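Title: Prediction job returns without error message
Component: structure pipeline
Severity: low
Priority: P3
Assignee: unassigned

Description:
Job completed but the reporter wants confirmation the result is attached to the right record. Sequence as submitted:
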Amino acid sequence: MKTFQLNAEPRTELGKKATKAIRKDNKIPVVLNGGTIVTLPYSGTLKEGEKIVEIGNGKGMVTTDLVVKAADVRKLIYTPDIFVIDLTYDGVTVKAVLKDIQFHPVTDTILHIDLLQVTEGKPVTMLVPVRLEGHPEGVKAGGRLSLTIKKLKVNALYTDMPDRITINVDKVQLGQSIKVGDLHFDKFELMNSKEAVICGVQLTRAAISDDATAEGGEAAEGGEAAADAAPAADAKESKEKE
């Protein structure tokens, strides 16, 4: 994966009023998840922006509220690429990936970002873009190639996470498809349903019309052959009677 550098600052004031002020200043509230797991009740000291979120069984997770500039995340979000983020705040740098983004329903402005802190030994699940390569046999026969799933859920160590999943479609015939269960990789696992269709070659009207024309031609040739054979059969039968 490519690396993206992102600077942030701890968020100390929470609530609707504070959030509105952050957005008015062209900044975005961010929550960094995946921090240290602690036993509750927690008696340690939290840094600026940190808080404890209860996760059950007497345990809690340290999360960090941050703020980033809207301009700083444009190339991170508005792109088909995926990144591991070098997130720097309060004098420290951690590795993180995008977990979720909340957009305004009307203006499409970014309202909130969730990041997930990652480590080398802990797998993460991310949406990875699909890229098709090759020219299917079914397309050569008049079909149309369609991509049903544009991003696949991939579970892997962040160091093994692919930038994209490339699928060769050269051998796909008319009416055939490639499903998640047809793909196998050594360093990562696809988490989508095994029966989910990723892509396929569908019959087009032109292909159906060509098939119908071909079948009609074969039928016509068969009729002509039968018609030619009939007089010959009659002549043979007449000769035998003589």
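Comment from assignee: result matches the submitted record. Residues 41 and 173 are 61 Å apart (CA to CA).
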